[in-house]
Amino acid sequence: MGNGQVLLDDVPLSRFHLRVSAYTTGGMFCDGYILGMIGVALAVWAPQIGMSATWEGLIGASALVGIFLGSLVFGPVTDRVGRQTMYVADLALFVVGSVLQLFVSEPWQLVVLRLVMGIAIGADYAIGAALLSEFLPRKQRGPLLASLNAVWTVGFVVAFVVGYLVRGLGDDSWRWMLASSAVPAIIVLCLRLGTPESPRWLAAHGRHAEADEVLRTFFGPNVVLGPEPPSPRRARIAELFTPRWRQRTAFASLFWFCQVLPFFALFTFAPDVLSALGLDDEFTGGLILNLFQLAGAVVGVVIMNRLARRGFVLWSFVVLAVSLLPLALAASPSVTVVIAAFAVFAFTVSAAGNLETVYPSELFPTELRATGVGFAASMSRVGAAIGTFLLPLGLEHLGNRATMTIGVAVLLLGALVSWAWAPETRHLALTEASGGDAARAGEPV
């Protein structure tokens, strides 16, 4: 760049970057906490009222259906009205929904509340990754975007630990488990106030003076965006299915779908799954698996920039399928086999799950980024909702071997999709990575 100018993609990592990363990951902590708590809460409440497997499945899946709706609707809205307003509004809905769970008395009421909270979570998936990716320099983009999923995992694991500790407080302990998500949501809501609008979004919508002001205020007078194509039209989901973008849309949606379907099915009902597989102390077993999950999330952040994106996603599916294979083949697996298989699955799915907050943000341009991320997130939650609803029914009617076999098949589909369509985006500037016409694989698998 001339005259001492520096591209936003190449600026040194600053306190501002870390602050926005913290505020964004804070929302993901809340997302993981809200979704992770429901399995423990249901393990307490369901036996009290003799809840059927159908109602358990509906409650477990309701937030995931909400995420589908929130991601699908608010991705395009975020591309049209901007990132910052939506970045704050969805946390307010977290707080309200969390508190209202204290007053639930019937399963259908919890289904409705979890649906609404899921809508807020879905919006946050689309908003947070888009906003953060548009601020970060290319060298740190992978690890810091990966930290979104890692902190989501922290929230999921913390929810399990809190639920495990609170479950002995009486018949109403499940209410306090669910309402406790209001605490982190209030903290993150306060921290997000005052976050600036994305300068990339401002420039793409012709608001160059405002974009320059954000750059001067938060990065310095010599920082520029570089080429940022103007937005040719209002963001529409239909644009994702044009010849230019449909392969990336299919890949982002399907790899995410195939990762989360078995994940949510197995971990939302971890106590039930472990019990069905012969582990008597299912809470302790679930806690151990969540610790492996947390370790995987941390390792995934560390290795994100050390592995080609394409190779990471492809081989992780292979490892995940192999980890569940013993549970699909053995009629009565030993406790050691069950724990080992689930530990490898938990570690790997958590490490590779970091790609869910990295890859989609790199695949779409600024004018379609939240729309593309939101659509991929919504499709993934179709898989999560299907798995969460059907898993208790599958264990009840098909048995654990058939249920695990279905999980293996889904993971192998993910490997096939990744082999066919995964592009390589590591080390590219954000505009280059999201160009759409780049070569599919810039680095060897």
Automatic annotation (TrEMBL):
InterPro entries: MFS_dom, MFS_sugar_transport-like, MFS_trans_sf, Sugar_transporter_CS. Residues 20-426 form the Major facilitator superfamily (MFS) profile domain. The chain crosses the membrane at residues 20-45, 57-75, 87-104, 110-132, 144-167, 173-191, 250-271, 283-305, 312-331, 337-359, 371-391, 403-422. Keywords: Membrane, Transmembrane, Transmembrane helix, Transport. It is found in: Cell membrane. It is a multi-pass membrane protein. It comes from the Bacteria. The keyword RNA-binding does not apply. Gene3D superfamilies: MFS general substrate transporter like domains (1.20.1250.20). This is MFS transporter. It comes from Pseudonocardia adelaidensis. The lineage of its organism: Bacteria, Bacillati, Actinomycetota, Actinomycetes, Pseudonocardiales.
